[in-house]
Amino acid sequence: MAFRKDFLWGGATAANQFEGGITEGGKGLSVPDVMTGGTRTEPRHITDGIFPQYFYPSHEAVDFYHRYKEDIALYAEMGFRCFRMSINWARIFPQGDEEEPNREGLDFYHRVFDECKHYGIEPLVTLSHYELPYYLAKEYGGWADRRLIELFIHYCETVFTEYKGKVKYWLTFNEINTLVMGVFGNIMGAGILPPGQDVKVGTVNGVEEEWDDVQRRYTALHHQLVASARAVQLAHYIDPENQVGAMILGRVAYPYTCKPEDALKAQQVMRQANYYCCDVQARGVYPSFSKWLWKKEGVTLDVSQEDAEILKNGTVDFISFSYYSSTTATDDPNVPVAMGNMMRGPANPYLKSSAWGWTIDAKGLRYYLNEMYDRYQLPLMIVENGLGAEDQLEEDGSIHDAYRIDYMREHIREMAQAVEDGVDLMGYTVWGCTDLVSASTGEMKKRYGLVYVDKDNDGNGDLSRRPKDSFYWYKKVIASNGEQLD
Ligand code: BGP
After folding, report:
1. Are strands 8-12 and 425-431 parallel, antiparallel or unpaired?
2. Does 128 score more than 80 pLDDT?
3. What is the dihedral of CA 370, 375, 376, 381, to 10 degrees?
4. Ligand 1 touching residue 431 (CB < 6 A)
């Protein structure tokens, strides 16, 4: 048997893409609440406030806020052992800088965790998943302001204390390394807003980024790394049972050719994208190549002795990551670049891509697991993986998503191989286990779910849930602990 007996099989979500109810229970606005819907060719807009002419997909999302019982019951039916979700900071502290938390917000998550407990499902909670309170973005300038560290720690202390005994697995910042990757990292990751009333956010295929603030982005990242290390220490102090993980966007970059220059380029991409953050979170120090990176990016960073101490004493218990696709790297500026999942690089001629242009590369997952385990020797967890695709709802209400089953099967096979290679793998939570709003495009049409939600890109639909073929397939996978994949 490849996988541990207690392997954490499950699914993953994020509050801003899933919950909705943004004006309910005293919730304040979060950054994605001012982001409009886009498509695979039309970028989303970020607006300075909420404008009636736009559709904002996070406002209702798929209404987990009211349907959590039904959703968690479906997860239990599939046999989930783990459910990854995020707490929306603005539900607990509507502005982000209040002294007292919002009791209604705290109670909502109590109900969710109690429901999980009822079915023996372990919650895995992300503290910050691209959903900074909008007030902190607007009035403080997001994470570029050092005061956010204290505000975040106050929020962490509140939820660690409140949910002690109910939540054991925590992740600090979702895909913290998007802050080394550009516009999306600026806005969604760091809460640094672009100047202007209505700005396009170029994260869709082929659309170039229009605005960036590299210095503030790296400063914000340093603040998040310090905040993350402090959160790890605090979580352990409040409850020694707590296990806190790093969460990064898993980026595999192959050399585009076997030219040594391309191999070097790929190594540089891997360092910048993966190891820069992960070294800090897992080893407690900035890697020695940081100086090269800061110079390349034209940034200066002031890492005080005090910060260095915090980083050293707040290393994580495990490393989690998202993995969807891989890229390539070349030093030849004439090779055209494609983009997928905030990653850019020349297209790989050996791989097929999803309809949204994300390469499909199951072997890359085995490669990445081995790379990460060799480097850190910490337990690993895949907390996002899956295929974003358009689904066809049949007359009889069924959804035959064989392509999604194929995708997952291949990735789970490679996971099993990696375990045989010697990797200590804790679990796997498929992304968007119930259809939800896409982070990059704001669409509903780009579905990842094993459960279909009746809602389209314009917000039409009755939000009813229907298991897809992948639902029944995944149920068998879990029941057999990953043995039965056909
Ligand atoms: C990750 C994010 C998720 C999620 C996923 C799929 O980068 O952590 O929030 O959305 O990507 O991306 P998308 O929704 O853009 O297809």
Report:
1. parallel
2. yes
3. -30
4. yes
The percent of residues in the chain predicted with pLDDT above 70, rounded, is 97
Q: What is the pTM of this model?
A: 0.97
> How many of the other CB atoms lie within 10 Å of CB of 460?
9
Which of 19, 115, 384, 443 does the annotation list as catalytic?
384
Q: Which DSSP helix (H) or strand (E) runs through 427?
A: strand 425-431
Outline where 103-241 has alpha helix (H). Answer: 103-118, 134-140, 147-162, 183-184, 214-238
Q: At what angle do helices 402-421 and 469-479 cross, to 10 degrees?
A: 20
Q: Whats the size of the chain, residue-wise?
A: 486
Residue from 126, 131, 384 to probe ligand 1 pocket by mutation (most atoms less than 8 Å from CB): 384
Q: Is the CB of 388 under 6 A from ligand 1?
A: yes
Alpha carbon nearest to ligand 1 atom 9, residue: 439
Confidence grade of residue 87 (pLDDT, cut at 50, 70, 90): very high
**166 contact partners, CB below 8 Å, separation of at least 6:** 110, 113, 114, 117, 123
Cα–Cα distance for residue pair 81/119, rounded to 1 Å: 9
From CA 347, how far away is CA 46, in angstroms rounded?
A: 29
Pocket test for ligand 1, best of 431, 448, 457 (most atoms within 8 A of CB): 431
Does the active-site annotation cover 384? yes
C-alpha 232 to ligand 1 mean position (Å)? 24
Of 19, 115, 122, 175, which is the active-site residue? 175
307 lines ligand 1 (CB under 6 A): no
Do the strands 465-467 and 451-453 form a parallel or antiparallel pair, or are they unpaired?
antiparallel
* Cα–Cα nearest to 108, from 33, 11, 168, 27: 27
Banded pLDDT at 433 (limits 50, 70, 90): very high
131 lines ligand 1 (CB under 6 A): no
